[in-house]
Specification:
With about 170 residues, this protein is an alpha/beta fold. It has a 5-stranded mixed β-sheet. It has one domain: 2-Layer Sandwich (Nucleotidyltransferase, domain 5), CATH 3.30.420.10. It is built from 5 helices and 5 strands.
């Protein structure tokens, strides 16, 4: 199973592709889509969508996962991130991929076992889970890999719960 994780942002959209086989995880690629603030918003959103579409074509993921937007104080930043998230969702929908959406605390919990882990702890666990020699850079890419790991872990938990419900119904 190949999963594309996305950490959306208008200036920087992190991406990470994780292959999952049983309980083994492997990073196939990661990076960051960067758009210049000097460009029009519509052009920046199109660049995010187009580059994600190219990554989907390159890696052929079966599913995608995105981080939900949560900002309590900076509305302007939340709007820009929400727009980038929309562009990412369009790229994923165009490819016909099922998508999981996760909040920051949910991602931290799935990756580190603690919902309020700091960025350093998340990056450390992403590196450990994926068997990477060095921490993924930039931070946006590490976050995107964490989203993909969260999705994989949540898929396993949902499958186990479904199996338990099926067994209990018999």
């Amino acid at each position: 199973m190949i999963i594309l994780g996305i950490d959306p942002g208008l200036a920087n959209t992190g991406w990470g592709v994780v292959e999952v086989e049983g309980n083994r995880f492997r990073c196939l690629g990661h990076g960051c889509i960067t758009t210049a603030s000097t460009r029009e918003t519509a052009e920046r959103l199109k660049a995010v969508r187009d580059q994600l579409a190219s990554l989907i074509a390159l890696y052929s993921p079966l599913e995608a996962a995105l981080e939900n937007v949560y900002f309590s104080t900076n509305v302007r930043s939340a709007m820009a991130t929400g727009q980038a998230r929309g562009a990412a969702l369009v790229a994923v929908a165009d490819a016909g991929l099922p998508v999981g959406e996760y909040g920051p605390g949910e991602i931290k919990l799935a990756v580190t076992g603690h919902g309020s882990a700091d960025k350093r702890q998340v990056t450390y666990m992403v590196r450990a889970v994926l068997g990477m020699r060095e921490a993924p850079k930039p931070d946006h890419a590490a976050d995107a890999l964490a989203v993909a790991i969260c999705h994989a872990n949540c898929r396993v938990a949902r499958a186990r719960a479904r199996d338990l419900r099926t067994a209990a119904a018999k």
